[in-house]
Design a protein that fits this description.
The chain is an alpha/beta fold and about 300 residues long. The protein has two domains: about 210 residues, 3-Layer(aba) Sandwich (Rossmann fold), CATH 3.40.50.300; about 60 residues, Alpha-Beta Plaits (2-Layer Sandwich), CATH 3.30.70. Helices cover about 35% and strands about 30% of the residues. The longest helix has 16 residues. It is globular and about 70 Å long.
Length: about 300
């Protein structure tokens, strides 16, 4: 069931069309990824959803009702630009943000302490925010989005700058919230996170939604005649081979699209004949990174690859 719906929203700043007639929908109890390179329009879209920017045209609906102040009260919003009061203590900060959303009392304090323990911050609850590392401050702000038990989480570049351990903790918390029926929408330009977590995605580029829908269905549509290959050796001999349509090279991993279905087995045979050590050969498989690059243009490949 669709719970959150963005319908034809647009926003311009002077001559710049930041978002152009963007539409997508998010089912209840799902994780949705708004994907795009830096400056693609992700944050502007989110700010219109949160009524920080008023759209020039279009509307946002939650459970069939136009989004407004009541919708905002149901949302836990983590903006791209983090904002904490540096002189406040950690637990004090969390309870302050919860009270702004109308939640206070022993249960909120207990929940805050549980999250601090989960994020390995229990011993810092009485420390001032300014004494925490950037990553720990980010964890505090993430916890602050959860304490009022929002129905919807909107997270702008959540994983930016986090180490793998804390990224995994946040991922597990998000999956727990999904199991409880929450809607989670996060923006990112890091395809590996989106591929592992998202049920649905929209790819935005230059303010326009280029691709939108179920991640599984999108991958199925784009994976025909595509091979994901991990290997060791020199495969330069493939570049001018007539059975190869495209090659997306990521180093020791490549995405190869052949011209005909029968070419899949021919390609595997050719690799073996040329003494290539094949570590992975997945036919009719494609990574989200390849789909992204094919969708928004090869000029973004280096940017995505390096993030």
């Amino acid at each position: 069931m669709v719970a959150l719906e963005v319908k034809n929203i647009s926003k311009s700043f002077g001559n710049l069309k930041a978002v152009d007639n963007a539409s997508f929908s998010v089912p209840k109890g799902s994780i949705f990824g708004l994907l795009g390179r830096n400056g693609a329009g992700k944050t502007t879209t989110i700010r219109m959803m949160m009524n920080i920017y008023m759209p020039d045209s279009g509307e946002v609906f939650y459970e069939g009702i136009k989004a407004g102040p009541d919708f905002n009260s149901k949302v836990g919003y983590l903006p791209e630009e983090r904002g904490l009061y540096k002189k406040m203590k950690v637990l004090e900060t969390l309870l302050f943000f919860a009270e702004i959303k109308g939640k206070k009392g022993k249960n909120v304090t207990r929940l805050a302490k549980e999250y601090l323990k989960k994020f390995d911050l229990a011993d810092r609850m009485n420390s001032k925010i300014e004494t925490l590392s950037k990553g720990n401050q980010q964890k505090v702000q993430f916890i602050s989005t959860l304490l009022h038990d929002p129905e919807v989480l909107i997270l702008d570049e959540l994983f930016s700058g986090l180490d793998p351990i804390n990224t995994n903790i946040m991922k597990n918390v998000i999956l727990e919230l999904k199991e409880k029926g929450k809607i989670i929408l996060f923006s990112t330009h890091v395809m590996s996170f989106a591929e592992k977590m998202c049920d649905h995605i929209a790819i935005i580029d230059s303010g326009e939604i280029k691709l939108n829908g179920s991640l599984a269905e999108i991958k199925a549509q784009h994976s025909q005649r595509n091979i994901s290959l991990n290997y060791k050796g020199d495969i330069s001999f493939l570049k001018n081979n007539p059975m190869i349509e495209t090659i997306a090279d990521y180093g020791n991993s490549v995405g190869i699209r052949v011209k005909e279905e029968k070419n899949i087995q021919e390609l595997l045979k050719l690799l073996i004949e040329n003494n290539i050590e094949v570590k992975k050969f997945d036919a009719n498989d494609i990574s989200l990174e390849e789909i992204f690059i094919n969708t928004v243009g090869s000029e973004t490949a280096e940017e995505v690859k390096n993030d």
